[in-house]
Amino acid sequence: MTALADFSPTITRSTLADGRDLIYFDDPGAGPRVPAPDGRDLPPRAEPGELRFDALSGDWVAVAAHRQARTHLPPADACPLCPTTPSNSSEIPDADYDVVVFENRFPSLGPVLADLPSSLAWGESVPAAGRCEVVSFTSEHTGSFGELPYTRARTVVEAWAHRTAELSALEGIRQVFPFENRGAQIGVTLHHPHGQIYAYPYLTPRGAQLAAAAQRHFEATDGTQTLLGSLLDSERSDGSRMVLEGQHFSAFVPFAARWPIEAHLVPHRDVADFAGLTGEEKDELADVYLRLLAGVDALYDTPTPYIAAWNQAPLDPALRPASRFHLQLTSPRRAEDKLKFLAGSEAAMGAFINDTRAEDVAARLREAVASVSGVAR
Ligand SMILES: [Zn+2]
């Protein structure tokens, strides 16, 4: 692979008709862009939803009733992520683009920004502060991230890093979470290949759980070892759950995987988030992530639904040093035509029962990744 450590997409900022930010990330060499104006007559942005504090669990719940009106699986000629045409005034006013990021028109969080209180009295709520962004990976309506050419995937990685840095600096933000839901089976409302970024004004329940475990290990080793660093070392020396190994990143199926298909992609050094990666690391990340996704899609004859969850360190300076950036890729698919549903034990108690063994899934994934490696892009 050619070193692309100085990879720099052309970044162009614009604004949609209702004031939302829109940012183009064009592949390097695309030249400067003069963004087209958004000619739509959009209503003013909706008032934010509310955040309610659940005294029973200590969790925040975002109530976003206005999201019921959002677009659901539109055909290609009405897709809000396709470039604008004479018959479809989409969210992207231009006739073409490479990668684009914009504020969600129907956000669960935002557009207000504010520091949240640590808890609320029963029956009180606050405006749902934060920010939700959409990342469109390509102007093509069909396909998926795993089918992107390398350069485009690398541009998306750059967009994730850019957005992580900016969102982390916004007032009141405690966690920045880039993710992708792929497949209508797991609730995707738009087929167009895209992901999202949530900037939360609180540490999510899962984020808090992972941060607490990371903190315990960090303290037990006098601040010399992150938990994920120790886990990766042990997985690499054991080998039975490894899926792929690179210079800067490796993927393995976690020992106590919760989902029928689950893989974690972890950097070889302690780094907090996308924004902290070096150019060389981002170069390799785009490559190994594409290989991992291609491997997942080689498991079955039809595309496998997945959630790609990019876990970034909490922004709380007390928790940050113990947490290492990583991807948790999970799929509920347990057979060609069977999905795992979260039922009583999992949904009600958070107690997972997995029908697959991590070592078996790792062997299948390893073979699948090897079978697709070297395919020219
Ligand atoms: Zn589309």
Automatic annotation (TrEMBL):
<keyword id="KW-0808">Transferase</keyword>
<dbReference type="Pfam" id="PF02744">
    <property type="entry name" value="GalP_UDP_tr_C"/>
</dbReference>
<dbReference type="InterPro" id="IPR005850">
    <property type="entry name" value="GalP_Utransf_C"/>
</dbReference>
<dbReference type="InterPro" id="IPR036265">
    <property type="entry name" value="HIT-like_sf"/>
</dbReference>
<keyword id="KW-0119">Carbohydrate metabolism</keyword>
<comment type="similarity">
    <text>Belongs to the galactose-1-phosphate uridylyltransferase type 1 family.</text>
</comment>
<feature type="compositionally biased region" description="Basic and acidic residues">
    <location>
        <begin position="38"/>
        <end position="47"/>
    </location>
</feature>
<feature type="domain" description="Galactose-1-phosphate uridyl transferase N-terminal">
    <location>
        <begin position="51"/>
        <end position="203"/>
    </location>
</feature>
<dbReference type="Pfam" id="PF01087">
    <property type="entry name" value="GalP_UDP_transf"/>
</dbReference>
<keyword id="KW-0862">Zinc</keyword>
<protein>
    <recommendedName>
        <fullName>Galactose-1-phosphate uridylyltransferase</fullName>
        <ecNumber>2.7.7.12</ecNumber>
    </recommendedName>
</protein>
<keyword id="KW-0479">Metal-binding</keyword>
<dbReference type="InterPro" id="IPR019779">
    <property type="entry name" value="GalP_UDPtransf1_His-AS"/>
</dbReference>
<dbReference type="InterPro" id="IPR005849">
    <property type="entry name" value="GalP_Utransf_N"/>
</dbReference>
<feature type="region of interest" description="Disordered">
    <location>
        <begin position="27"/>
        <end position="47"/>
    </location>
</feature>
<keyword id="KW-0299">Galactose metabolism</keyword>
<feature type="domain" description="Galactose-1-phosphate uridyl transferase C-terminal">
    <location>
        <begin position="215"/>
        <end position="367"/>
    </location>
</feature>
<dbReference type="InterPro" id="IPR001937">
    <property type="entry name" value="GalP_UDPtransf1"/>
</dbReference>
<keyword id="KW-0548">Nucleotidyltransferase</keyword>
<comment type="pathway">
    <text>Carbohydrate metabolism; galactose metabolism.</text>
</comment>
<dbReference type="GO" id="GO:0008108">
    <property type="term" value="F:UDP-glucose:hexose-1-phosphate uridylyltransferase activity"/>
</dbReference>
